[in-house]
Amino acid sequence: MDNVYLVGFMGSGKTTVGKILAEKINKAFVEMDEIIEADEGKPITDIFTQEGEERFRRLESKLLRDLSVRKDLVVSCGGGLICNDENLRILKDTGKVFFLRASAMVVYNRTKQHAHRPLLNVDNPLGAIEELLKKRNSFYAQAHYTIDTDNISADEVVDNIIEILNK
């Protein structure tokens, strides 16, 4: 089976959904941010602060290339990973891409207590979320499938994905 890639903004449920999905379809789960943190020996926030977003995006792209040659993975991708044309091509060529869509307010409510979100460590996090969503929406729209996560549980999202995969 091809890989299943979960893309979407931070707080859209990629990791939660990915863990449940992987268990239900008996596939390995991969959380890209966790691998990068382990490989670099520091949290994503430190990579952003000390080395910059560009360095983080290069690490993300390299990891995606490494993962894309494997099969039968459920991959929780970083929120901005898809915003690179080469990454988008790799995702679409090596698996099924599911965009887990969440509104700005839902993202804000889900993430406001998490200081480890480097792109939200600003004076107006809701405004930052709205701005980033606008910038990323054209990339997210290129996923194979879109599932709105605002008003359904993680289990319902998983059931929707499994239904699509079984078609």
Provide an overview of this structure.
This protein is of the alpha/beta class and 167 residues long. The protein has one domain: 3-Layer(aba) Sandwich (Rossmann fold), CATH 3.40.50.300. 54% of the residues lie in helices and 14% in strands. It is built from eight helices and five strands. Strands 2-3-1-4-5 form a five-stranded parallel beta sheet, sandwiched between helices. Helix 6 packs across helix 7 (125-140). The relative contact order is 0.21.
* Main beta sheet: 5 strands, parallel
CATH T-level topology: Rossmann fold
Strand order of the largest sheet: 2-3-1-4-5
Structural class call reads alpha/beta
Helix content: 40-55%
Give the rounded overall mean pLDDT: 92
Rg: 15 Å
Beta fraction? 5-15%
Flag low-confidence runs. none
- Write down the domain tally: 1
Note the overall shape: globular
Order of helices and strands: EHEHHHEHEHHEH
Q: In CATH's first tier, which class applies?
A: Alpha Beta
Question: Gap between N and C termini, in Å?
Answer: 13 Å
CATH architecture: 3-Layer(aba) Sandwich
What is the CATH H-level superfamily? P-loop containing nucleotide triphosphate hydrolases
DSSP helix count?
8
The number of strands is: 5
